Amino acid sequence: MKTERLLLALSLVVLLSGCSTTPSSEGNAKAADTGYFLSWEQKGQLIGSGRIKDAQDNWYDVWVVPGYDQPAQETMTYLGRTGTAFGEYFGSKKYHDLGDASWDALTWGFDDCLDDFIFQGLPDALEIYWAKAEERSSKRVFGWWFAYPWALMESIVDPVVRVPVGLCGTVLGTAAGVAVVPTYYAVNSTIEGTWYLTVDAILLPTVACTWNTVIAPPMALIGQKPAPSRTDGFWVKQITAEEALKPSQSVDEPINTKDIEALAAWSRLLLKTVPPFDKQRQEIQRKAQAERSAISKKEHEETQAVNKKTAAAVEALLSDPDQKGLLDYLQDRNFNPQRTSKAFTDLRQHFKPELSDEEINQVIQLLQRYAPSTPTPKTPLRPKTDPVKHSVEVIQEIK
Known about the structure:
Blueprint: H1 2-19, H2 28-31, H3 40-49, E1 51-53, E2 59-62, H4 69-87, H5 93-139, H6 147-222, E3 236-239, H7 241-245, H8 257-273, H9 275-319, H10 324-332, H11 337-341, H12 344-351, H13 357-369, H14 387-396
Antiparallel strand pairs: 1-2, 2-3
Helix pairs in contact: 3-6, 4-6, 5-6, 6-14
């Protein structure tokens, strides 16, 4: 009894909601927008497509209502993609790509790893090792008698690493070319087509239709007529008539021959229209660059002239007999740039009573540029080595 009363009440609400928007003598289009509840036509639009059209031909897209059109369209689209995926087994492109990929893997394994890395790389490396030993022996450098044993050590370490690594690469390349690549191409279309069929064509549309069955009727039953003032651009968005006529699907359609032809036509139009303006822009940039280059050249020349004058003035200070005692003391104390920088904190405190902060910073900058003592450049020594360290170096230099 309670269930019958509930169904009767719902029927009355639906009837009243439809009657409350029944057209009057003013015409169907205008009357459809009067009242609170959606018209019967609008209810059908919402349930079928998730979109509503008002009497002023404004369309509204309700985000949470997918409709039945979109899932149906997606089902048809992904059924087509399923057929395309499985159809790859009957075309030549898959087997052409398989051959190319397998050949690339085998080429890497045999040409790069076996031939270049082992058969050619090992003799070249041995030739270098023994040529260095011969050169050291002929020059009679200190310890020349140890040059050939050293080359022998290098000649043992190199192939011990090179040959296993190269053979591993050959094995991997062979396995990839013979087994891995063919297996991938044998199953990739099946996996892709199965995903399209089960997930994209069946599961997701079924979920969308189920959700639409749950959410669309209540909204169509008690939802208020939309209006431009009652859209937020997120939950309810006003769209154009052209957008409303297109399927509301998020499927990224594959690029086909017609798409390429259309893009090519648009490209030709752009090629006729845009390049003249690009040339104008390039000419403007060329003139601006020439002006900047001229300014930069002038600035560089004037700066260099000032730098020469500054260097001459500092050199005059360094050669001034009156300053010899001061400079000799600072140089004896080895006030090179590194040592001078360690005194900056104490110098700041020293100048604090007589100079401003800006002047103190200027003093620091001058000392950074012109330290009293210049360090003598030293040629770095090679780090000491031993057979183990050099063996590691030989391995790192293998190529």
